[in-house]
Amino acid sequence: xxxxLYIASTNPGKLRDFSLAAAxxxxxxxxxxxxNAIEAPAEDGPTFADIACDKAIYYSRxxxxxxxxxxxxxxxxxFLTGAPGVRSARYAADAGFHEADSPDANNNLLLLQQLxxxxxxxxxxxxxxxxxxxxxxxxWLAAEGAVEGRILTAPRGSGGxxxxxxxYVPSLDHTMAEIDDRSRWTHxxxxxxFRALLELLP
Length: 202
Fold this sequence. Notes:
Blueprint: E1 3-7, H1 12-23, E2 27-31, H2 48-60, E3 67-77, H3 91-94, H4 103-114, E4 124-135, E5 138-151, E6 167-169, E7 174-175, H5 181-187, H6 189-200
């Protein structure tokens, strides 16, 4: 019988990607039952790992006896001393920046403003992802993954989400928004973190 990991996410893209990767390890990925009815925890830890662990512990209490997976990820830009970091999804909202129709668009516009005039060799950064598994309110496993890149001066590509149109990966000669889903999973911070986590599962 396949082992089951319940993921604290309703994002269909994450569920699809995690499921495909886990299948080869004899693991089934399912969304946490009733997740939409559970009040979300405060995400106020100082690092991606702290937030992922806190979320896994919190949500595991709603499904006794089962393993619950949670993640936290975002973008770190060296010129901005690591920002947006753990506030990546709320970067523009935190700054009261509202010039576009979606959070992703606002985040990208604000990032471009913050890096206006910055030379290419100073626009380095990375995507980072932390994953954690907990059971019955206790942490069990954790893993991280990262991918290095550079922030462009204009978006390229229509795939992915978040900062993907601005995040250029030199080894691929593409932004994360210019590659297909399978390639993105292979090279992304989330894919690397999940493969590292699967290797830790007994």
